[in-house]
Amino acid sequence: MDKNPSSSKWRILSSLAAHKSFTQHSVLRLPRELSPCHGVVRRRRAVLLLVVVVLVAGAVAAAADMAGDRAALLALRDASLRGAVPVGTVGNLTALRTLSLRTNAISGGVPADIGGCVQLRSLNLSGNRLAGRLPEGLFSLALLEKVDLSGNRLNGGVSPEFSRLASLTTLNLDRNGFNGTLPGNLMLPKLAQFNVSYNGQLGGAVPASLTGMPASAFLGTALCGGPLAPCANPSPPSPGGSKGVREEEEDRRERCGPHL
């Protein structure tokens, strides 16, 4: 018996990632009720049930969108996945359109090879223990429409590279440790949902492109402007604030003598 059920699951996923038919045609789901955290499965040996359904274009109307693109969905919610995602588990899923590993206990960083998922439209890694900065590969996924990284331990600045994701409609970065200011040149023309709330070290002005978002999107930060309270004006110079050329000249004369 494997004493680390989570490592067994990662090995299975790594094997599936290397399987070409999966990357092109399949749907992989682990329903909540089959998670090792629920019911009989929890009380017995930890078992990962993987259901692989081959999609045929046009065969199932409900899956027409995915099947038509010969794409795949990987959803492992509440699957008790722990530890860092092994290299090669995600990056080899080159036809993946939806990746959801939310509400697990995944640590480490966002997979560095995420840029290999060139067809990815939706990424949900919320409710884990991911830390560190976002990998550059994330910003190369030009087809991304939805990104949810909320409820992790991610840090660093909110990158201006998000502007490269021109198809993005949803960006949730709330409840992390992002810091600094939001990029003033952030341009996401299709963005409808945005949330950076409860990133306590985020400050500065809300960029003009985000002023239409609700105040709740910025709660628990030090941001200002837009839907929030106005930013404090910079302190005006005091009336004698330029200490005056005359005063500086007099100081110099006192130090150096009258013959200057």
Automatic annotation (TrEMBL):
Q: Which domain of life is it from?
A: Eukaryota
What is the first-listed, main subcellular location in coarse terms? Answer: membrane
UniProt cross-references to PANTHER family, sorted A to Z = OS05G0588300 PROTEIN, OS08G0427600 PROTEIN
Which residue ranges does the record annotate as region Disordered? 231-260
Q: A Pfam family matched by this chain, by name?
A: LRR_1
Keywords assigned: Cell membrane, Leucine-rich repeat, Membrane, Repeat, Signal, Transmembrane, Transmembrane helix
This protein is called Uncharacterized protein
Localization annotation: Cell membrane
Write down the Gene3D superfamilies for this protein, in alphabetical order: Ribonuclease Inhibitor (3.80.10.10)
Question: Which organism is the protein's source?
Answer: Oryza sativa subsp. indica (Rice)
Which chain regions cross the lipid bilayer?
46-64
Q: Quick one: a GO cellular component term?
A: plasma membrane
